Amino acid sequence: MIHAARIHRMDNRPPARGKHILYWMQQAQRAEFNPALEYAVEQANALRLPVVAGFALTSFPEANRRHYQFMLEGLRETQKRLAARGIGFCIRPGPPEEVIPALAKNAALVVGDVGYLRVQRQWREAVAKHLACPFVLVETDAIVPVAEASDHAEFAARTLRPKIHRKLAEFLKSGKPPAVARPSLDLAKRSLSLDDPAAACRALGVDESVPPSDRLAGGLAAANKLLDRFIARRLADYATDASDPSLDGCSHMSPYLHFGQISPLDIALRVHASDAPRAATDAFLEQLIVRRELSLNACWFNPAYDRYDALPAWSRKTLDRHRKDKREFIYSRAQWEAGATHDPCWNAAQAEMVRSGQMHNYMRMYWGKKILEWSRTPEEAFETALHLNNKYELDGRDPNGFTGVAWCFGLHDRPWTERAVFGNIRYMNANGLRRKFDIEAYVERWLGPQTMSLF
């Protein structure tokens, strides 16, 4: 049974007379650990109907070849996993408000997953207006449903943490998924072929400006392989190693979470069941649950999450006081994008992101702080950081990405000692990197040995 707190009814109509239940897959692009899909199966079994999963392959703001190919690789695998459960899958190009109502023409009920971003919420509202049958959304992407954890935008992790922890025992568990009672209808006509994701990208005419990651492939199988290796080899030292960019101490789950190819609950249960030290599992679950769900909270309760004006009043005020301070360096958007600054640490972080589609979290904080320090205005810095993050990161255009950038400008933080340019915004510098880590090894990894003379 799906917890009632996960279920959001878009209307109060009873199920209509129909030939199937349609699961509109969007945020949760997976066949397992998916409460929205399981709710659809439960309803279908009760009505003695088959389940069909439908996907609208539409334009997503700022998405390019890197993002689409990773997503299509995952959907290709998901299609096979759905078929193994007796669930048909139909993917069609077009906006959701056209594709989903067409697939729901003979549906008794449409079940969707919850998206926290503005565009995702707009899609769901638009689809609801075009459906002749009931429409239910089920929250799949948070371990503790966002509105169950809090009823307002939280100030910081420390204010959300106790609320999450009070609910964890209730939600940090999983039941056996229901078997599909009736095999699915074949709605594969006009379904996009996923046999060759690269060819599908070309056929769709997606932005080719950013090539696929040279490090990560999409799909649950790839995610499981990385997660198993992380738990076996790195989780035990996570509390000490995860913040060090010279070490590979992270799980690399963020891109897979972004596309819903793996469930945060699945990850949490596997980490919780490991034999790693409690300090390590607690540190990891803090990031996976509290910090990640803080970003969901920020986007859910503040629809202007991607705008400079949505930053806390204290941070905008202090940055405004220092907007005329002299900057030691000022770089253009093109220089930032090319990693052509005077700072090898920053350039290495940019190179990591451009090549792999990821950036170590500690370096992403440093990266954002330096953009703030070496841009003409804080507003320009904010736009530059968002643009680069969204263009190159596989987990860009995501609550974690939006709030991660905003954190560099004061969101979910507090005022610190005042200084030039930053005002009371938390400051970071390269000397701090050198004191804490073998940052030269990180730079050499991404820029090559010839950069060592810069230190």
Tell me about this structure.
- There is one protein chain.
- The protein is an alpha/beta fold and 455 residues long.
- It has helices spanning 35-47, 65-84, 96-103, 118-129, 146-149, 157-171, 197-204, 220-233, 238-241, 254-258, 264-272, 278-301, 313-321, 333-338, 344-356, 361-373, 378-392, 399-407, 430-436, 439-447; strands at residues 7-9, 20-24, 51-57, 88-93, 107-113, 135-138.
- The chain has a six-stranded mixed sheet with strand order 1-6-5-2-3-4.
- α4 (118-129) links the parallel β5 and β6 (135-138).
- α6 packs across α12.
What is the percent of helical residues? 40-55%
Number of DSSP-assigned strands: 6
Quickly count the helices: 20
What is the CATH architecture term of the largest domain? Orthogonal Bundle
Pairing-aware structural class of the strands and helices?
alpha/beta
- Uncertain regions spanning at least 5 consecutive residues: none
Mean pLDDT: 95
Radius of gyration: 23 Å
Tell me about the biggest sheet? 6 strands, mixed
Instruction: Using the coordinates above, name the CATH class of the largest domain.
Output: Mainly Alpha
Q: Hey, roughly how much beta strand do the residues contain?
A: 5-15%
- N/C terminus separation: 58 Å
Number of domains: 3
Shape label? globular
CATH topology of the largest domain: DNA Cyclobutane Dipyrimidine Photolyase, subunit A, domain 3
Spatial order of the strands forming the largest sheet: 1-6-5-2-3-4
CATH superfamily of the largest domain, please?
DNA Cyclobutane Dipyrimidine Photolyase, subunit A, domain 3
Q: How would you spell out the order of helices and strands?
A: EEHEHEHEHEHHHHHHHHHHHHHHHH
